[in-house]
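Renewal narrative, Specific Aim 1. Our central claim is that a sequence can be written position by position from structural information alone. The example that follows is taken directly from our test logs and has not been curated for this report. It begins with the structure tokens describing the chain, in the order in which they were read.
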């Protein structure tokens, strides 16, 4: 922005602001008189015009910085939780059709010795625990992994909620910048 200087009107005595770009030309006063602006060398000797201060600051306040950081952290944590939710594996299901076929195959094609060996292999477990639900061996590990991912997701959501609440409280309570 070019510097402005005050030029006095000869008719009414008011002072008119003239920029350095207007040196050597004329400007119009409020009374309608054309005021001659002196050349640049003489213009710089006149009193400077006060430039109006910008009523709005271009710098961020601490309040705005905290709000942006808190909102960014909240959004990042929510996105991370959404990623964990969308990439969560499905629990393993026991293939009942395959088991039924293997039992049917054993019944149709099995010998008495096959039945006896199956009984000996499973007798102790049946006596201790009774009949248990049949599950795949890796299903326990997959279920533990899924539980761990769900716990991580819930922790991330709780932290994101905490950041959102703290950001909202800070925004509501923190005083706005006072302009002087």
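The sequence written for that structure reads:
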């Amino acid at each position: 922005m070019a510097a402005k200087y005050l030029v006095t009107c000869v008719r009414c005595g008011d002072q008119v602001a003239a920029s350095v770009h207007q040196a050597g030309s004329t400007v119009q006063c409020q009374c309608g008189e054309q005021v001659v602006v002196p050349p640049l060398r003489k213009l710089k000797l006149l009193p400077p015009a006060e430039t109006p201060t910008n009523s709005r600051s271009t710098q961020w306040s601490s309040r705005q910085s905290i709000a942006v950081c808190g909102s960014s952290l909240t959004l990042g944590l929510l996105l991370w939780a959404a990623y964990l939710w969308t990439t969560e594996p499905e629990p393993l299901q026991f293939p009942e059709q395959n088991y039924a076929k293997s039992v049917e195959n054993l019944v149709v094609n099995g010998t008495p010795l096959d039945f006896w060996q199956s009984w000996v292999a499973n007798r102790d477990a049946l006596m201790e625990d009774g009949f248990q639900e049949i599950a795949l061996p890796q299903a326990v590990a997959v279920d533990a992994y899924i539980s761990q991912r769900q716990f991580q997701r819930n922790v991330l959501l709780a932290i994101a909620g905490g950041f959102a609440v703290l950001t909202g409280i800070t925004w509501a309570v923190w005083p706005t910048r006072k302009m002087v």
